[in-house]
């Protein structure tokens, strides 16, 4: 009898040990980001943000009693590498969810893999193609390029600008942006009189800008790109003495652009999430506590200002964590459903209300139109 009791006690102890070990398994957050290369100014703050908040969440006890483990790879701004690293995250690292895809090109190379593996994926890329058409396992946190196009064209209409030159990057983001601008032009009574492109690694865009300068009737220039390229365009613009209004997309909404472009950026207008201007938001703005707290935490950790790109990563992680909590597990299908059911989440980019038909969930009103004055952001409207 005693022998049976001892065997039962031993078995129960082993079962508890196994259960405890299983409960202690970390929740794996996979990430592929462009930490280096042309899009490094976007991916670097994204990675730092994920590292900062994974550590913070773990200090507070983790999620569902389990610690988070960040497994991240740098694709070097190369979409083909993003594809390879995503395979590794899924097949070798066995991650529970993926946050990343800094650029549209990287994201779209990852999409077929996550869809096949049926793993929740929250992209940090800007193009509308990421979520339209809706892909069951794919979500995103930044505003779309279509929203950026509409925000800019609306401002042009208010200023009486009807003839515009478009200068777009040949990256996935730039070309998707070009397509979206062309699609909504007529809605705002604007006509393209020049349509040029540049490469993300170009170090001089003067030839294209010279063509634009010499095009009759141009009243403003709209640049659609991200990373270092738009800063080069802005400097070339100033060097050529072009006095027309210059607009950029949300692909440059960071302090890094201000540093790279310098005084040449004064007068540039662009749409941006609230994260660029935490100190300038009204006290009753629901986003102010969120963007202010993130800005302060990032500055304290890295002695640098937070950026909208880091904000996209912050939103991605927090939406993922919230979904895992509501799902009560890391079951991928349950987490996916919980992300899709996200309502009223106040984040860095705006208030998210997702649905089966909308895997982003942001309103156009969450985009702020900014103008750069004396090297700083000012709110236009």
Detailed description of the structure:
This protein is of the alpha/beta class and 381 residues long. Helix content is 44%, strand content 17%. It has a five-stranded parallel sheet with strand order 2-1-3-4-5, with helices on both faces. The longest helix is centred in the N-terminal third of the chain and has 23 residues, at 2-24. It is globular, with a radius of gyration of 23 Å. 51% of the residues are buried. Mean pLDDT is 93; it is low at 12-22.
| Proportion in helices | 40-55%
Widest beta sheet: strand line-up: 2-1-3-4-5
How many β-strand stretches? 14
* CATH H-level homologous superfamily name of the largest domain: Response regulator
First-to-last CA distance: 81 Å
What is shown here, in short?
This protein is of the alpha/beta class and 381 residues long. It contains 12 helices and 14 strands. The chain is 44% helix and 17% strand.
